[in-house]
Structures are given as C-alpha cells and as structure tokens.
C-alpha cells in the first residue's frame, strides 16, 4: 500500500493468470517485488545487498505464470524464480558476449526481457546485441547485433548488424516472433522473427522531438515499450521528452498521447 517504499523501480511485468498481480524490479534496493492488490512483498533478493540480485531491471513472466525471469544487470546474469527456487538461468557473472548453455554463456549488463510462446524463448536486450535464451535448457545464442562495435550509427540489415544499444525495453509479437526494441534512445527497431533482419521503423540516431512519419520522428532517451492488445500499436516511453509516444505499426506514423 502507500507505506511501501521503492528505490529506482525499473522493469514491470503483469501476471498472466488474470489476477491483480504485478512484479517490479526494485533496482536500487537489489530486489524483486510483488504487488498483489495493495500488498507489496519482496520475493527475491536481499534489500540493500547485491549478492543475490544486482541492480535488476527487466522482468518477464512465463506463459503459465510459474516462472518469473529478471535481468540482474549488475551481475551480468538472467535469474529465474520458480516457486521458492531462485537460480541463475544464464550468464557467467562476468561481462561478455559468448554463446553457450547456462553459466557457460556470458552477458553484458542485460536489461530488457521479453518472452515468446512455449516452450519459451526469452529475448534479452544487452550492450550491442539482442540475445535469445531457450528457457528449458538455458541455451543462449545471439539473435541480432554484434559485440565489439564502436560505431553509433543505426545500420539496418541481417544478423551481425550494428545494433547500437538495445538496453531499453523490448517486446515480442507472439504470432510472428518479431522483436521490437528501443535502440540508443533515439530509434525504434524490429528484428524479423524468421529472417532476423534488423529494420529501423521509427527515429534514427538523431536526438530530438518530432511526431509524424515514423522515420522522420525524433526521440530523446526512448526506453520502455509496450504493444497494444491487437499488436498494431507500439507505445514508447520517451524519457527526456517527458511523453508517451505511439507508433502505429500499420501506417508508420508517430504521435504523442
């Protein structure tokens, strides 16, 4: 209720069971919180200590509601809460970009999370790449982008394209597997579900504010994203413009709401 306190709340995910439950990454307190109606409880991590969970950000809930995934950004891991078991899904604890299984894979400051269908694939936005994690066996592979690139240009194309900084929000279209994400705070991009081709659909690498045709639109620290129920509109938290922007995925027009 009103007496609960948070410290830099970042990621949020709603229950998939229809209950009035939400899960929040309380980043500054290094914990994962649960809001059930008006009651707030800590369900993972230790308040004030980064040992179990370090500056968490993205949160995602499995399709059956049994597992909650959280990006432990500061410890370069993705964690899974299943009942009372809190475990590392993937990540060695050291920054890196190696593909592999479980803690043999390495991540760099993972942040945005999104789940696609069952058996579940978890998409993870991190520095320079979007990674795909096959949840049943914790196998990690690079879905788009390339590590080690210094350029800040927004470049479209296939696998290995320079994905600048996909560390904001990302969402996945369940019917197609397309992954939408904010890139570098100034653009909205999509990775094709089958082709894995990266395409910029709104903005560029230019900071500013402008509504209108999507490629002429401008953002300033675009971060969180959410899809409408029918997957035709994308909502973008444009942090430094202090606005919520709406991108119509059919007409490719951006407005502010």
Descriptive overview:
With 257 residues, the protein is mostly beta strands. The protein has two domains: 1-148, Neuraminidase; 164-257, Beta Barrel (Thrombin, subunit H). It has strands at residues 9-14, 21-26, 31-36, 39-45, 56-61, 67-72, 77-82, 85-90, 100-101, 113-116, 121-126, 129-134, 139-145, 170-172, 179-183, 187-191, 198-203, 212-213, 222-227, 233-238, 243-248, 253-256. The strands form five sheets. It has a five-stranded antiparallel sheet with strand order 9-13-12-11-10, with no helix packed on it. A five-stranded antiparallel sheet has the order 18-22-21-20-19, with no helix packed on it. The radius of gyration is 17 Å and the shape is globular. The protein starts with 8 loop residues before the first strand and ends with a strand. Keywords: Repeat. It comes from Neobodo designis (Flagellated protozoan). InterPro entries: 6-blade_b-propeller_TolB-like, NHL_repeat. It holds the Pfam family NHL. This is SMP-30/Gluconolactonase/LRE-like region domain-containing protein.
Short summary of the structure?
The protein is an all-beta fold and 257 residues long.
Secondary structural class: mainly beta
Regarding quaternary structure, what we see is: single chain
**What is the class of the largest domain in the CATH system?**
Mainly Beta
Helix content: under 10%
Q: Biggest sheet: strands side by side, in what order?
A: 9-13-12-11-10
Query: Which regions have little confidence, pLDDT < 50, spanning 5+ residues?
Result: none
**Overall mean pLDDT:** 91
Q: Radius of gyration, rounded?
A: 17 Å
Q: What is the CATH topology classification name of the largest domain?
A: Neuraminidase
């Amino acid at each position: 209720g009103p007496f609960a306190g948070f410290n830099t709340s970042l990621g949020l995910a709603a229950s998939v069971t229809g209950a009035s439950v939400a899960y929040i990454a309380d980043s500054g307190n290094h914990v994962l919180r649960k809001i059930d109606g008006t009651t707030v409880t800590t369900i993972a991590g230790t308040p004030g200590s980064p040992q179990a969970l370090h500056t968490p950000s993205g949160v995602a809930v499995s399709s059956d509601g049994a597992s909650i995934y959280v990006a432990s950004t500061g410890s370069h891991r993705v964690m899974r809460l299943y009942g009372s078991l809190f475990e590392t899904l993937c990540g060695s604890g050291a920054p890196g970009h190696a593909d592999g299984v479980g803690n043999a894979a390495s991540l760099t400051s993972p942040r945005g999370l999104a789940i696609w269908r069952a058996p579940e694939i978890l998409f993870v936005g991190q520095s320079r790449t979007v990674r795909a994690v096959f949840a049943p066996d914790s196998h990690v592979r690079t879905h788009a982008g390339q590590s080690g690139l210094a350029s800040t240009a927004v470049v479209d194309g296939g696998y290995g394209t320079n994905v600048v900084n996909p560390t904001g929000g990302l969402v996945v279209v369940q019917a197609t597997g397309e992954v939408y994400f904010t890139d570098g705070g100034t653009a909205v991009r999509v990775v094709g579900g089958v082709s894995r081709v990266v395409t910029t659909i709104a903005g560029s690498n230019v900071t500013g504010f402008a509504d209108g045709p999507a490629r002429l639109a401008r953002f300033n620290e675009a971060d969180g994203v959410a899809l409408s129920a029918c997957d035709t509109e994308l909502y973008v938290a444009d942090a430094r413009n202090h606005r919520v922007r709406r991108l119509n995925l059919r007409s490719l027009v951006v407005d502010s709401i």
